[in-house]
Specification:
Layout lengths: L2 H13 L3 E2 L14 H10 L2 E4 L2 E4 L1 H6 L5 E6 L4 H16 L3 E6 L4 H7 L5 E4 L2 E5 L4 H12 L3
Parallel strand pairs: 4-5
Antiparallel strand pairs: 1-3, 2-3, 4-6, 6-7
Helix pairs in contact: 4-6
């Protein structure tokens, strides 16, 4: 992902808004990004157009997730997803990471990319596990990311 695209996705967090118009991405020292860049982010699934505004998709959030963010992609009523959640929740809490659970059926991009390949666990923006998780390996990775002794 290019730096300009990353800055656009980070603008949502900085401004705390769910939808932005093209002009909202600019600043006094930096003009609004070209429509082609925004279109590229829409095509990649990072943004979606809603009328004359853009909103960041869950995929767009995942692309710029920090290393201490854990995302579990799943589905309501999925017993495998519930099992993985039970395994990772205490580890995430122990290492001070942030956990976000996302129902793939609420986001078209995630549903298309992952469909029935759930649960999927991301550490930051990296897919770490699919279907099941190795709790010892997950603990070790969280420990490594946290810089724990």
């Amino acid at each position: 992902m290019e730096e300009a695209e990353r800055q656009i996705l980070e603008t949502f967090d900085r401004l705390g808004l769910s939808r932005l118009a093209a002009a909202d991405f600019g600043s006094p020292d930096r003009p609004a990004p070209p429509k082609a860049t925004l279109d590229q982010l829409v095509e990649s699934g990072s943004l979606r157009e809603v009328g004359d505004r853009y909103e960041r998709t869950e995929w767009g959030r995942l692309e710029i997730a920090g290393p201490h963010e854990v995302t579990l992609l799943g589905r309501v009523g999925c017993h495998l997803c519930e099992g993985v959640l039970r395994q990772i929740e205490p580890l995430v809490a122990r290492f001070g990471a942030k956990l976000r659970t996302v129902d793939v059926d609420t986001d078209r991009i995630l549903r298309e990319r992952y469909g029935n390949e759930i649960p999927v666990v991301f550490l930051g923006n990296t897919e770490w596990a699919r279907h099941r998780i190795d709790p010892d390996g997950f603990r070790a990775e969280l420990k490594r990311l946290q810089g724990s002794p």
